[in-house]
Amino acid sequence: MSPPCQPYTRIGLQHGSQDPRSKSFLHLLKVLDTMQHPPSYILVENVKGFETSDSRDMLVDQLQKSNYTFQEFLLTPSKAIGIPNSRLRYYLLAKLKPLPFAYTTTASDDSILDFIPYLSKHTHYCEKQVDALVNYLDPNADQEEYAVPDKVLLKNGYVFDIVTPSSLHSCCFTKGYYHYAQGTGSILQMNEAVNAQAIFEKVQTIDEKDTSLRLELLHSLKLRYFTPREVANLMGFPANFQFPPTATRKQQYRTLGNSINVKLVSHLMHYLIMQPSCIDQ
Questions:
Q1: Would you say 224 and 147 are in contact if contact means Cβ atoms under 8 Å apart?
Q2: Which residue stretches belong to region Disordered (predicted)?
């Protein structure tokens, strides 16, 4: 389950269960209470902030009432699975008793894990061994097609989160990427031989009316947007994933911004169905 995130997001009003958009989720909780054959496994995903909401409390209460055991997580791909992207999300896994979890928490019942238990035993999933962005880039991406427009460079370039192919991180991509400049995802600097901070500092010393010289400096960075394919790569989508031919670029970015990290969730699903005897294998 992935309830609407707007009632819980940090930039929203955070009305929780009082927000009309949470009604569908609350309805599912009522349905769970009446099911003769409830599901053996449940996975819930939402934004960070859900864990402190009254909706979370209602979810946990209903799960306990319906004879489930559960574990909660706050996970981001960079730390959990080594993908260089920040997308911190809340997850809850639940199992119908007597099904056991492969990993038993030793802290209080309210503890929230920041790792996937069975992956923590594998050294290649380590925060210190995050992949470089270059491994997720499309070598055939058109620089001109995805270049940041001059108007946006001059007006909003100072608020960009700029990364390079060798960077080990990128910001969370939202549905506003490619449309809004700040807080919607990282911008890629293809020319790693140039220092972006030095360029922007130099641009500030140039008269605003001299746009040609300012743009000449900014163009030296070769700033571009991540392509939808590259964002999909960072979201863990398989290489054969494709959008329908009718999907516009804006629709592709919006869909990805509203999506989940597929690879991270697949690991959670694998852990959810694991037996205790498998955790050390």
A1: yes
A2: 1-20
